[in-house]
């Protein structure tokens, strides 16, 4: 009996072990199948991810190519081509100056460099009196003057000397600078004397208009007070040609034609004066009297005024509308001129090209004292 029970127990144990072995084999086989399935899924997922990544990259490349193609179709502004013969003024306001450096000008430089607008609507700034006014003949003994009291600012004297030397080389001499810088007190005396003649019949604006029409500016608005303007005449002792007015002489005609080459303009053109080639600008300058007043503005600015037949007021208005211009002669760039806005007074720092041969920076006084813009003239 005990042997039979032992055999049964042993057989039962064997069966259990067999079952456990079978289960272990099944589990192992299942794990292997599951692991293979997971790996296969991972491989499939990786392949799908790579396909999606490739699709996105291709879509990006296509989008970028389309963007570049669209950009290529948009016209890029090109610097205009100048005329190859003669003078040409081109508006390049949509282009900034290139290859620049900074240039700093003091307040005194800004108000004495030529483009300070002075007329019946724009007064001379008070601090102009702080500039140094030099005796013209004492500074340049080749310039004849009416007396030793004729004074101007230095840039005007230099330009005047260069101009008269060129005229002499062409056989025209005996110029005489009859008047230059005028003190405010002196201008007041001239104005009061002229106004006194009409004080009994005219008042207010009517009186002012009458006095100005006779060539006497309101004190503070006279070109003579700028220190950049001068009245020209002719002197030759014992010469009967002195019976003629200056504007009737060849010396005057030469200045009308050539003074701009030295940075000097005829300030108040009226119809047919000083000669028949001159057109009326009194509606802009506010001065209709026949005055032999010339004004230093700098060569680049004078060149544009000459080329475009502008008076000083028209030129500044043109720069307000076209704040960057390029000036060519026979296809070669000679000048770039930029108007900088919002000048607030004092010294100023502006951008200029590194290749500039000369830089002239002037306040234009277009909005009155301490306001307006700066005119940056660059010569090459």
Summarize the helices and strands and which ones pair or pack.
Layout (H helix, E strand, L loop, with lengths): L1 H72 L13 E5 L8 E6 L1 H6 L20 E3 H4 L11 E3 H16 L5 E5 L4 H13 L7 H10 L15 E6 L15 H9 L5 E3 L15 H4 L7 E4 L2 H10 L3 H10 L2 E6 L2 E9 L7 E6 L4 E6 L10 E6 L1
Antiparallel strand pairs: 1-9, 2-11, 3-4, 5-6, 6-8, 7-8, 9-10, 10-13, 12-13
Measured by DSSP, the beta-strand proportion falls in 15-25%
Please state the CA-atom Rg, rounded to the nearest Å: 43 Å
Side-by-side strand order of the widest sheet: 1-9-10-13-12
- Separation of termini? 131 Å
The percent range for helix content is 40-55%
Structural class: alpha+beta
What is the number of helical segments per DSSP (H or I, 4+ residues)? 10
Q: Give the strand tally.
A: 13
Average pLDDT score: 90
Largest sheet: 5 strands, antiparallel
Series of H and E elements: HEEHEHEHEHHEHEHEHHEEEEE
The shape, in one word, is rod-shaped
Segments where pLDDT lies below 50 for 5+ residues? none
Description:
With 380 residues, this protein is α+β, with helices and mostly antiparallel strands. It is 41% helix and 18% strand. It contains ten helices and 13 strands. The strands form four sheets. A five-stranded antiparallel β-sheet has the order 1-9-10-13-12. Strands 5-6-8-7 form a four-stranded antiparallel β-sheet. It has a two-stranded antiparallel sheet with strand order 2-11. Strand 9 and strand 10 form a beta hairpin. It is rod-shaped. The relative contact order is 0.14. The model has no long low-confidence stretch (mean pLDDT 90).
């Amino acid at each position: 009996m005990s042997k039979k029970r032992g055999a049964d127990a042993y057989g039962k144990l064997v069966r259990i072990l067999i079952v456990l072995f079978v289960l272990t084999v099944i589990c192992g086989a299942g794990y292997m199948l599951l692991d293979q399935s997971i790996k296969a899924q991972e491989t499939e997922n990786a392949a799908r991810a790579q396909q999606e990544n490739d699709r996105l990259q291709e879509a990006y490349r296509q989008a970028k190519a389309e963007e570049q193609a669209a950009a290529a179709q948009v016209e890029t502004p090109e610097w205009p081509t100048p005329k190859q013969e003669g003078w040409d003024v081109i508006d390049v306001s949509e282009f900034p100056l290139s290859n620049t450096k900074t240039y700093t000008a003091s307040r005194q430089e800004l108000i004495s460099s030529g483009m300070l607008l002075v007329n019946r609507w724009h007064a001379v700034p008070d601090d102009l009196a702080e500039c140094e006014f030099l005796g013209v003949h004492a500074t340049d003994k080749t310039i004849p003057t009416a007396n030793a009291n004729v004074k101007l600012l230095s840039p005007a004297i230099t330009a005047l000397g260069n101009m008269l030397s060129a005229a002499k080389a062409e056989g025209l001499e005996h110029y005489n600078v009859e008047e230059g810088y005028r003190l405010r007190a002196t201008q007041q005396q001239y104005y009061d004397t002229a106004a006194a003649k009409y004080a009994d019949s005219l008042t207010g604006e009517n009186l002012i208009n009458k006095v100005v029409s006779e060539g006497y500016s309101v004190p503070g608005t006279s070109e003579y007070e700028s220190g950049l303007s001068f009245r020209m005449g002719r002197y030759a002792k014992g010469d009967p040609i002195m019976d003629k007015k200056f504007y009737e002489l060849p010396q005057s005609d030469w200045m009308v034609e050539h003074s701009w080459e030295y940075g000097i303009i005829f300030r108040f053109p009226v119809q047919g004066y000083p000669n028949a080639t001159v057109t009326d600008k009194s509606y802009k300058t506010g001065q209709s009297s026949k005055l032999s007043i010339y004004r230093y503005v700098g060569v680049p600015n004078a060149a544009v005024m000459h080329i475009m037949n502008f008076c000083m007021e028209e030129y500044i208005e043109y720069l307000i509308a076209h704040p960057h211009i390029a000036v060519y002669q026979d296809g070669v760039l000679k000048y770039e001129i930029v108007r900088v806005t919002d000048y607030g007074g004092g010294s100023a720092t502006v951008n200029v090209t590194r290749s500039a041969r000369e830089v002239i920076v002037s306040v234009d006084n277009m909005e009155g004292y301490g306001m307006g813009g700066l005119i940056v003239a660059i010569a090459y």
